[in-house]
Amino acid sequence: MMGLGMMIGAGVFLGVGSSIYVSGPGGVILTFTLNGMIALFTAMSYAELSSAIPKAGGAYNFARVGFGKGTSFLAGWMEWFASSVAGSMYSLTFSIYVLRYFEQLGVLGWLPFSMNIAVKISAVVIALFFIFINYRGASETGKIGAFFTMGQTLFLIFIGLIGVLVAVRDPSRFQNFSPFLPYGWSKLLVTMGFTYVAFEGYEVIAQAGDETIEPKRNLPKAMLLSVFIATMTYILVAFATVVAVKAGMPGIEGAPWEWVGSFKEEGFGEAISRLIPMGNILLTIAVIFASTSALNATIYSATRACYALGRDHMLPPVFARISHARKTPYVAILLTGFILIVVATILPTTDVASSASIMFLFLFFMVNVCVIRIRRNMGDELSYGYVMPFFPFFPVIAICAQVLLALWLVHMSVIAWAIAPLWVLFGILIYQTYSKTRVKAGEHDILVFEEESAPEGDEYRIMVACANPDSAVGLVRSTYKLCGAKEARVELLHMIPVPEQVPLSDAHQYMLDGKEAMVEVMLYLAPLFPVSTTIRYGRNVARGIVSAVREKRIDMLIMGYTGRTRSSLFRLGSTIDPVIERAATNIVLFKDSTNQTFERILVPVGGQKGVFSLEIACILAEEGGTITAFHVDRGKRKFDLERFLNEQKPLFKGSRLELKKKLALSDDVAASIVVESSGHDLIVMGISEMPAISRVARTPISELVAKSCPKPLVLVKPRAGMRFFFSRFT
Amino acid sequence: MTATALTGCIIVGAVVIFINVLVFWSSRTIDRIAKNGSQHLRAILRERRGER
User: Does A180 touch chain B (CB under 8 A)?
Assistant: First the structure.
């Protein structure tokens, strides 16, 4: 209800008249139709994300899960401003329409100042009133919002239906649509961008994510339905506005659409007051309903964004201070009110609406990118209540449209185009100088349950992540050679996932499983190496492993790998993929290679990454064993195997290992490796790093080998440098 | 009716139908996932994988 309240607000009252002025009678219908479609695509992204992550926070929260704290700060920062500025727009709408009514009644003659100043003063007064309402608490907020929303929606549908009825009874009014697009198609982009703010209600629904009953079902439904109702209502209302008057009526000069357009923001009011009897008073009441409920919802939304930033220490914690008496975040409410009132006072109405639209376009752009990234990276481990069809086409279309509309808005308001990027840049500056170092370690979903003290000193640290208690001992047996060769200190990590339904504070129920496995592994390793153990409970195993690697400054991470993935959304598995991508350490994955001895090891090499594979192979090979460096040439002859092996000679110094080399000529590297593996006990190869874009077109070689080769396999990835960091995005 | 007006009307009509279909389909999917739990969701994902 609140989302609908925010949508069917001032956007349509201001937008219809201005759109007719800029793009003509057909333009206004097309504007709301096409905007409705883009809004629906974005609402589908919101619906999918909030069904999977039904926490309060909206875009801020999605960006945190999808990209991390920097992007999420920016999302929260933009959301705060966008909602505050939208609030300015709604308070201005309220003033424009209410004062217009009183002016027509002729009771404003005594005012000592111009109408423009009166509008600004009244906007400030209504804004202050609703800031106070929000300060008083959420129960009042909800009741008032629901009541107003019902009223305004019914009234707008009523106007629309009257419009249709009038046009059917008097078909000559269809002549009002001629010329359909007097200024051409390009003007559509301007009005679409300008009125986009009228569709931003689903952000408020997402904000209230954790306060909904049955959120996985109700959140996505509410979002999609609110966009649907809003779009259909807007189209009807726009139609009614165009056919409200007809040429030749008293007081109508020129073509009807030109006459409506000449009033710009007030055009809708002028047209509707002539369409229905008592139109003026009914319209004013509707505007009071609409703009106040939208104003209320935006203050609520902006305050939540600001509060969340303060709570997570991205902004000073004072921003999240709660009033003792009212239990509301009063500092966030006051700051939101400050932005709202300053913008409403200083800027002209069109620039205020454009600023809000640009900021929401930026924000929705970010959410559409998030939905793609989250489905690709974490799709298998999230429990969705809704998945959109034809993924990722809709978000991609929405992203392109939103970029285009945001750029085109420069034709509507240059001021808005100066303000929006400045706010974003200011946000980046604050993040870099303040938030980055102070932000809370964010994910409140990892619980360290039992941990021995972190070791001091500079010795080499190997972490063995035992995901599966049954295979833990086997994994540790096969890794003791690595531990011995590196004279390492061993950290055993057991991550146990706790389902969302169980509070982390009750995670001790899962204690026994983890403990038994760890004790067994400890008994095996403790006589040989210094060992410490950690059992962690969390919602997300991958995130827990990555944070443990960072906290304990691990040099090498060892994991087991079954070779099976439950979903094609993942390359090597829903836990392994994110760990490979994010853990800044050397990684070694064992597949079917536990508890065996290896005499003949095949090491496919193709570049400098092969050095780490060779090093691991040397450690794993039995004394007197053979290591075959294997290179598959695709005919390009870029890699000099001979030279590469000469450079790696020091690795074999002092050992009794035999190094062989083999060169093959083939187009299919993976198939050649699989064929060659038949004469070997084990394959040790690097994990192919490919830019995300290339992975869409072809599967990396290491994945192909992992999936098709029956032989034991060890996949390795040396510690990533900056180059790899950038390659993830290109 | 001019060609522009005709194109405009066709776009409006097509988009309105498209929006209706999408919202109807989505609403049904949400209900099915809510009713059958992750079983239905897995079926959707499996179907997608097959398509790819």
Answer: yes
